[in-house]
Specification:
The complex is a heterodimer of chains A (about 280) and B (about 425). With about 280 residues, chain A is mainly α. Chain A is built from 9 helices and no strands. Chain A folds into 2 domains: about 110 residues, Four Helix Bundle (Hemerythrin (Met), subunit A) (Up-down Bundle); about 160 residues. Chain B has 3 domains: about 160 residues, 2-Layer Sandwich (Beta Polymerase, domain 2), CATH 3.30.460.30; about 130 residues, Rossmann fold, CATH 3.40.50; about 80 residues. The chains are: A mainly alpha (about 280), B alpha/beta (about 425).
Chain lengths: ~280, ~425
């Protein structure tokens, strides 16, 4: 077993611990610094694992998509650590931590078995540094989308209960304020958008050079471009006509769903399935 | 010795009677000194708030051998407050021993308050404790009891939702504003009308950090007066449509027969604010804000009934949380009783062991002379034998004594200790 897997699993255990602590803290109406510490520890192990993987990638039998999932978990955890202090954490923790755990589980638990490693073609491609930049930028863009999605879900829940006049009062300890959630989603999108754009541009340019013209009908490419377009509409509507709140939250969810679909159909994509074994 | 408490509160007496027996803050020190001067009083504490007067005293037992304490607090309180005759017994509750601890734990945790969960009482009790300390009326008993009561109160606050839910309309208003905006420090409050309820809510929002107050009213001068009082800004009611958009929270409380803010007005505000949310608190009857405003995105309208419902459901919530709080109190009381018992028992147990050891040493010294020369091992074996005999013999009585002490009531505990001391001649 490669070292990457060991570190990925240690990170998974840390995230699980953080989730448990957050659940207990929520029940006891407290919040715990332990959550943050556990996520930070998991974050570090994830980092070590990623470095190991990066060192091993061109030659060793490592599933590239597993490593990319680990990268996504890593970036989401980084976002989580950044917003943990400034936003009332409980509801956010309980929504984002399970996501991190799922990503880390996919990254750390997929069976490795006897793998042949990347195909010779993929291996040669992995010697090109641009692919790493492409992956990193897109993953940070996706992580921003994940955070925006979480904030959007919470926004919709909070807005609904305020409209129904059934909000459990003193919910401020539990649920971040409406305006803060909106702002958080906006900032996450703002960070994610230019990086996703950069990632797509690099991907397109690089694929063009390697494979010739890539068809827009390629499912991953098409969905990624669609998600990017919705992303753009989201930001533009906010700047131009003050779109925010509920409409913005719904559109964020759509954008997230499209991006997720794009991720799931990697296997169907001619240019992306090269890296799947 | 007995720990006793005499109290009068909203549970036991009307406000007229509480007034007569209240000890004003200025007179508290004198009252404490008066209590300290009483014969038989070792420690004492007086808690006097608008809802309760309570006197705690740790006193010697009476001369005539019955179990009663040396001081009748009811007569003492009458004298201290300058009444001719002691007031009716039925106005008071009188507690002794363990019941005093339970009561003080509950009072500190605000379970005995008019509004369960209100936060002031803990501070008031701490203050009473500090004042009694200043007069020198606090000794081992109260020093053991009150910090535990404060600790229990802290746990109740932290671990139950008893104080988490607002129970006044103003608090509910602030709470809603916080749920929407979070930090209020950059927010503007617009008060329409100068009615009492609206002004109170506005003042409360300002105290919670809201940055700016705008006031408007049909009579412009009274708006100006109110604005001046809170460093706010007044504008004539005619400008409402132009200036309403600046407000994050609008409190409406006028006597107008027609709504002052229509759906069209509100959507105008929201459009100008580029969708930033607005909270409308409509405290007027008939209403000042059209109910349909609530249907607009990013607008939230709460009227008097809505706020009232929130407050009432929170009172229910508090009652439920109080049950959880009682569980904590019982656990804390048990811990307190165990500590206390250990403290009370310690001298007797130590004396018992010292006595046994002295006896052993004396007996061994007496016999040792007759045995002639012994090797060091033999000497050590004999030492060990006598010591372990004594310890084994004492073990069971000591364990049983601890158990009996825990199970016994306050009055029996002293008797039990006395008995043990007599039995073993300590």
């Amino acid at each position: 077993m490669s070292f990457y897997l060991i570190w990925a699993r240690v990170a998974l255990v840390c995230y699980l611990l953080a989730l448990v602590v957050a659940l207990v803290a929520a029940r006891r109406r407290g919040s715990s610094g332990l959550t943050r510490a556990a996520v930070a520890t998991g974050f570090l192990f994830q980092f070590v694992g990623l470095v190991e993987a990066l060192a091993a990638v061109p030659a060793q039998p490592i599933d590239l998509y597993q490593v990319i999932t680990a990268l996504l978990a890593f970036v989401v955890a980084a976002f989580f650590l950044m917003v943990y202090r400034t936003h009332s954490p409980r509801a956010l923790s309980l929504l984002v931590l399970p996501l991190i755990v799922v990503l880390a589980a996919v990254a750390g638990l997929a069976p490795m078995g006897a793998r042949s490693g990347p195909s010779p073609l993929a291996r040669s491609l992995l010697h090109n540094g641009w692919i790493y930049v492409h992956i990193l930028l897109i993953m940070v863009g996706y992580a921003g989308l994940v955070v925006a999605m979480a904030a959007g879900v919470l926004y919709l829940a909070a807005e609904r209960s305020l409209k129904a006049k059934s909000a459990p009062l003193a919910a401020e300890h539990w649920m971040p304020p409406l305006e803060k959630l909106d702002l958080l989603a906006y900032r996450a999108l703002l960070v994610g958008f230019p990086l996703l754009t950069g990632g797509l541009v690099i991907g397109a340019y690089w694929a063009d050079a390697l494979f010739g013209r890539v068809s827009l009908g390629d499912p991953t490419v098409m969905l990624a471009l669609l998600a990017w377009a919705i992303y753009l509409v989201l930001l533009f509507a906010r700047w131009s006509s003050g779109w925010r709140g509920r409409r913005s939250a719904y559109l964020t969810l759509v954008c997230f769903a499209v991006a997720l679909a794009g991720w799931l159909v990697n296997g169907l994509s001619r240019v992306h399935s090269i890296f799947l074994q | 010795m007995t720990l006793q408490l005499l109290g009068i509160s909203h549970h036991s007496a009307s406000i007229d009677e509480r007034e007569r027996l209240a000890i004003p803050p200025a007179g508290l020190e004198a009252a404490l000194r008066l209590l300290a001067a009483e014969r038989g009083v070792r420690e004492g504490l007086i808690l006097s708030t608008c809802n309760r007067v309570e006197v705690v005293a740790h006193t010697d037992d009476g001369q005539n051998g019955d179990q009663g304490p040396a001081l009748d607090l009811r007569h003492w309180l009458a004298r201290a407050t300058g009444l001719d005759a002691a007031p009716d017994v039925s106005l008071f509750y009188q507690l002794r021993g363990d019941e005093v601890a339970r009561h003080l734990f509950r009072v500190a945790s605000s379970l005995d308050s008019v509004v369960v969960g209100e936060p002031q009482i803990l501070g008031q009790l701490k203050h009473a404790y500090a004042q009694a300390q200043a007069v020198g009326l606090v000794g081992a008993e109260l020093d053991a009891l009150l910090p535990r009561a404060f600790h229990a109160a802290k746990r109740v606050r932290a671990e139950t939702g008893i104080a988490a839910h607002p129970v006044s309309v103003s608090q509910a208003a602030v709470d809603l504003a916080r749920q929407i905006f979070g930090d209020l420090s950059h927010k503007t409050v617009l008060l329409i009308g100068t009615g009492a309820m609206g002004s109170i809510a506005a003042r409360y929002l300002l105290r919670q950090g809201a940055a700016r107050l705008l006031v408007t009213n049909r009579t412009f001068t009274s708006a100006q007066a109110l604005a001046a009082k809170h460093h706010g800004e007044a504008f004539p009611l005619e400008q409402l449509r132009e200036r309403g958009e600046n407000a994050d929270v609008i409190i409406a409380c006028t006597g107008s027969p027609h709504p002052l803010i229509t759906k069209a007005d509100a959507s105008h505000f929201l459009a100008r604010r580029r969708g930033r949310p607005m909270l409308f608190l409509d405290l007027a009857v008939p209403r000042d804000v059209e109910p349909s405003v609530h249907q607009l995105e990013n607008a939230f309208v709460y009227n008097v009934d809505d706020l009232d419902r929130v407050v009432r459901s929170n009172l229910d919530e508090r009652a439920q949380e109080a049950v959880a709080a009682e569980v904590i109190i019982e656990a804390e009381l048990r811990q307190y009783a165990e500590r206390r018992q250990a403290r009370d028992l310690a001298p007797t147990l130590a004396a018992l062991q010292a006595r046994a050891e002295a006896m052993r040493v004396a007996e061994w010294a007496r016999v040792r002379g007759r045995l002639g020369p012994l090797t060091q091992e033999q000497e050590q074996a004999a030492e060990a034998l006598t010591r372990s005999l004594m310890q084994k013999w004492l073990h069971q009585p000591m364990v049983q004594l601890k158990l009996a002490q825990l199970e016994a009531g306050a009055a029996d505990r002293d008797a039990l200790l006395q008995l043990v001391r007599r039995l073993f001649d300590l």
